[in-house]
């Protein structure tokens, strides 16, 4: 059925165009022969095609545009006739004899245009005559296009200020009156379309009306272009008349479109000075009108106007724009009881943007907007509408973008109250936005109170909120969120140690509520924040003033110990061990031997009781050896105890190769360059010999199990350790020992049972080249290496 209707419409349009073209042909022929009577006859017949009621507005427009082109030619002819002495008044009378009213009025508008241009009669009289006579067409579509034609041909002939048609009898008021009257009649026709035809075609009519809206809106554009419409005339005449028509038409489509037109076509300055009038119309609109979009566009226009120049800001203060907009939004929301949440939030989001542009220094205004939003949202619970939550994120992001400083946003008491309405996921998104703002602007949070306020905003990342299902969380997203929060901890800093310690305690209190899954991300960041404070206080053991509450390294280390212990609930023994060793090193720098020993003890307990994976043990033992080697605070007894334990752990690793490497690494525990009391050559040699025995045992085991002795890499590594201590002046490392090891490696490499290993061969060759290079270097080092034969 629909396709049949479309085909029929195409046929009617084709027939209409054919009839129009045929009559246009005869009209042209009459024009060429200066036959006025025939020209009028055929032009009237041509325009009769516009009397059809069968075409949709879209198809009718096509027919209208063809007629419009022909009428322009007819208008040119009339101008020529006037120049040749033909009376325009007679012509104006003559076209009124056309048989049908629609062709008659089109011809009348065309001649009227020439009549005004000839100035034989006041423009206002002709315009008034034309606009009144157009009332003869009450069919909506035909009437709209006719009046659109009248608007088109008259727009450059209005008696505007500075116009050639302005005179004693013609004023700008007449021009405004003409456009307003034409606008009023067109709007009535446009609204009437909605009430014609069966109810089942309502949707189709809505679509058709939407296509025709620009015909009505052009009148407002013409009004905005009239030079004589100053602020006073706009305030006293134009706006009240237009709004009267908007409110009285009681049509949803018309009201929304026309309010949008008013906001878009007239200057921002006019809107600012007539806010009362414009806003008072909003609650009177139909409940179904999308008022949030209208008001949002108005506030966006005014925000941009305020941002355009600082000079216009006093105008906003003068008219009290903020309070007027705020009151208007409140009234609109009250009038529209069923306004969805997204509408409420969008309105307050636009108002906040406006406030931040116009009153950037008035934080109380911004807080008022957030407070009003909270009031309207109260009782709604968590907002689940995704579009509404996006608008809340936009609302909360506005202060961050404007001030580029979270500290300023923290002063807004209603900011966290708005966040309460976000669902768990969006709360986390907003928390991430806040952290990104802090990182981007390198904002430093300096007090305990501000940290508390900030953590209230980002609590969605700190702990599980109600309704948060851990099983549903994407692992990668979770890691990204927690890493983001861990970076935030480093932005919490105060140069005053007392204040910084308070901040650390506040952070610790919050992150310990995060549960075992979050602690491995958050605790390391807190630990390093504490260690930064320790370095700041380095050398200060006790408070010189004797104040027990004072912050000292000892006090911080106690907190560190308790904090790392919290990781046992995860459990994360490898991470805990690393953190204990970091703390031990910091205690070493502060010359706190008992503290450093305690941290090492905790690390050793973790190694013995918690770390069972062989790879993790290898990594852990090398970390222990490396940290212990750098410690200078221990006395002989404590150092021997820790060193003995470390060498014992090394010898008990699962794989022989790991044992060997750990044992020769232990040799560094007995020889520290810058500490004379820590150079025990004999024990270094013992470690290296022990490593050689383990390497030899590894070869024998490989031979027994696989029939070959494997690679000589371990021997070459041990040779390099011998060379290191030989250079450092260890008297126990002799030339003969090194020579013997070189020969052993050479023999092993030539053995049939040794597995070929290009990497080991290259390593050994490189070691021999190094010996050769040292021999050729000259000086004491050359003499030292000279006896070694390679």
Supply Rg. 45 Å
* Straight-line N-to-C gap: 102 Å
Q: Characterize the largest beta sheet: strand count, sense, and whether it forms a barrel.
A: none
Structural class: mainly alpha
Number of strands: 0
Show the helix and strand layout:
Elements lengths: L1 H31 L3 H12 L9 H27 L4 H7 L6 H18 L4 H11 L6 H15 L17 H21 L9 H24 L5 H19 L2 H14 L2 H6 L1 H7 L9 H18 L4 H6 L2 H15 L5 H18 L4 H15 L8 H18 L2 H5 L4 H5 L4 H18 L6 H10 L1 H4 L12 H15 L7 H15 L7 H18 L16 H13 L7 H17 L3 H17 L4 H16 L6 H16 L4 H11 L14 H26 L6 H15 L7 H16 L7 H18 L3 H7 L5
Helix pairs in contact: 1-2, 1-3, 2-5, 3-5, 4-5, 5-6, 5-7, 6-8, 7-8, 7-9, 8-9, 8-10, 9-11, 10-11, 11-14, 13-16, 14-17, 16-17, 16-18, 17-18, 17-19, 19-22, 22-25, 23-26, 25-27, 26-27, 27-28, 27-29, 28-29, 29-30, 29-31, 31-32, 31-33, 32-33, 33-34, 33-35, 34-35, 35-36, 35-37, 37-38
